[in-house]
Design a protein that fits this description.
Blueprint (H helix, E strand, L loop, with lengths): L7 E5 L2 H4 L22 H5 L22 H15 L3 E5 L2 H4 L10 H16 L3 E7 L5 H7 L6 H16 L6 E5 L9 H5 L9 H26 L4 E7 L3 E3 L4 H23 L4 H9 L8 H9 L4 E5 L4 E3 L8 E4 L2 E4 L15 H15 L3 E5 L17 H19 L5 E7 L19 E3 L11 E3 L1 H11 L20
Parallel strand pairs: 1-2, 1-12, 2-3, 3-4, 4-5, 5-7, 6-8, 7-11, 11-12
Antiparallel strand pairs: 9-10, 13-14
């Protein structure tokens, strides 16, 4: 058998993309609640269009999402039927500290997640919990300027200590900050940053990044002090960059682009700034304030494992203007003629996952965890309401085979695999429901219409079979397409 017996199979979601209930249970508003569906979403995400209040001219999908706030028991039951060993989820910071700077946490919010963890344990499912997944309380943005302000370190540390203390014994796998490198590409999403006119945007982003890195190290330190059983990971929006040609300058460009993301993990896994980052600050005249105490904190608490998302590889050139461009997650990339693409232009590259695993394991020599991977696609139910999503099965099958090869042939130490959007959810990049990832269909459209009814897709039964066989049975030949799709 390729994978260890204790391999953690499961699925992943984020609070802001599934919960809804944004004004219930004492919750405060967060940056992500202000992300509208439509063409202005990218400008808000980039921090160049200020939107810190709801505008009646826009639709905000996070308000209701898929209503997991009221339906989590139903959804967890379905996860259990698939045989999940782990469920990766996030906490809503503003559900626990509604304003972010509150003296005391919101008990109703704490109890909500405690109930979820107890429900997961009822079915033998291990929670893997992200403390901050594209999530900053709105008050911290308005009052302090969000992560550009050093005070956010203390507010986050208080939040982390609160949840790590409260959920001791219920949660042992933690991630500090989701896709921390997204801060450089979508500053409002990754850090609640709204740029002011005349600001040095690069300086603001890297100063905010420094504050997040110190906060992450503090959370890791607190977790280890509170419970030696805690395992804490960092989280990268992964996917390596290929040089478009064998020109040396294209190869150099690929190295430089990879370093943009590795920078964060180098700090979190190794406990110090890499020289290339310090040289960048010096070369570009970026004045990043790093206190002597920060250096000690970073060194004192490297993470236990490295987790990452993988959807596609990217292709770059020193002469990128000469080539056709497409998208890969939120990263711009030259279109690779050797790879097929999804309906949203994301290029499909299973071997790239194996390559990424090898690069990260060689670099960090720490256990790895694939915490996001999946296919966003338009699903069309048949006359009986059944979705035969063989295309999703094919995508996931090839990526599972790729990481199995990384384990068996290359010797990678891999803790687990959680597919992204195991139940249909609001797509982070577009705010759409029509960009579906799940094994479970949710009756909800891009305008917020629908019953929220959950039904099982073909992939639901296939993934159940994969987990039962610990990844040995990847075929879908024996999966019937005339199965009962109701939730039971």
């Amino acid at each position: 058998m390729t994978l260890p017996e204790n391999f953690l199979w499961g699925g992943a979601t984020a609070a802001n993309q599934v919960e809804g209930g944004v004004l219930e249970g004492g919750r405060g508003l967060a940056n992500i609640d202000m992300m509208p569906c439509g063409s202005d979403r990218k400008k808000v995400a980039a921090g160049t269009m200020k939107m810190l209040e709801w505008d009646d001219n826009y639709y905000y999908p996070a308000k209701e999402a898929i209503d997991m706030y009221h339906r989590y028991m139903e959804d967890i039951k379905l996860f259990a039927k698939m045989g999940f060993k782990v469920y990766r989820m996030s906490l809503s910071w503003s559900r626990i500290f509604p304003n972010g700077d509150d003296a005391e946490p919101n008990e109703e919010g704490l109890l909500f997640y405690e109930n979820i963890f107890n429900e997961l344990h009822k079915y033998g499912i291990e929670p893997l919990v992200t403390i901050a997944h594209f999530d900053v309380p709105l008050n911290l943005i308005k009052k302090y300027g969000s992560w550009r302000n050093r005070k956010l370190i203390d507010f986050y540390a208080q939040y982390a200590r609160t949840v790590l203390t409260r959920y001791k014994g219920l949660v042992k796998y933690w991630l500090t900050i989701n896709e921390i490198n997204i801060l450089l590409h979508q500053p409002f999403v990754g850090g609640g940053i709204v740029f002011e006119e005349g600001e040095n945007q690069e300086e603001v982003k890297y100063q905010a990044a420094h504050h997040q890195l110190v906060a992450s190290a503090l959370a890791t330190k607190i977790a280890h002090e509170l419970d030696q059983e805690n395992k804490v990971g960092c989280m990268l929006a992964g996917g390596n960059n290929y040089p478009y040609t064998c020109r040396p300058e294209d190869y150099q460009e690929a190295i430089n682009r990879d370093r943009e993301g590795y920078f964060f993990i180098d700090v979190q896994a190794r406990g110090k700034y890499p020289n290339y980052a310090l040289k960048k600050f010096e070369r570009e005249n970026l004045h990043i304030i790093i206190e002597p105490e920060d250096v000690k904190i970073l060194a004192s608490a490297p993470v236990d494992f490295v987790s990452f998302s993988y959807y596609s590889s990217r292709t770059v050139s020193a002469h990128s203007e000469d080539y056709e461009h497409t998208t890969g997650n939120i990263f711009g990339t030259i279109k690779n003629p050797n790879l097929p693409s999804t309906e949203w232009g994301w290029q499909i590259d299973p071997l790239g996952l194996r390559n990424s695993l090898n690069q990260m394991y060689d670099r960090y020599q720490k256990p790895l965890f694939i915490v996001e991977n999946g296919l966003g696609a338009v699903d069309v139910p048949d006359e009986n309401g059944f979705i035969d999503d063989e295309y999703r099965i094919d995508y996931i099958r090839k990526h599972i085979q790729a990481f199995k090869d990384a384990v068996e042939i290359d010797g990678i130490e891999l803790l687990g695999y959680t597919t992204w959007g195991c139940v249909d959810l609001i797509a982070a990049s577009t705010g759409q429901m029509s960009k579906r990832y799940g094994f479970i269909h949710v009756d909800r459209d891009d305008e917020g219409n629908g019953t929220m009814k959950r039904t099982k897709k073909k992939s639901f039964y296939w993934y159940k079979q994969v987990i039962e066989s610990n990844g040995e049975n990847l075929t879908s030949d024996n999966i019937s397409t005339s199965i009962d799709t109701t939730v039971k």
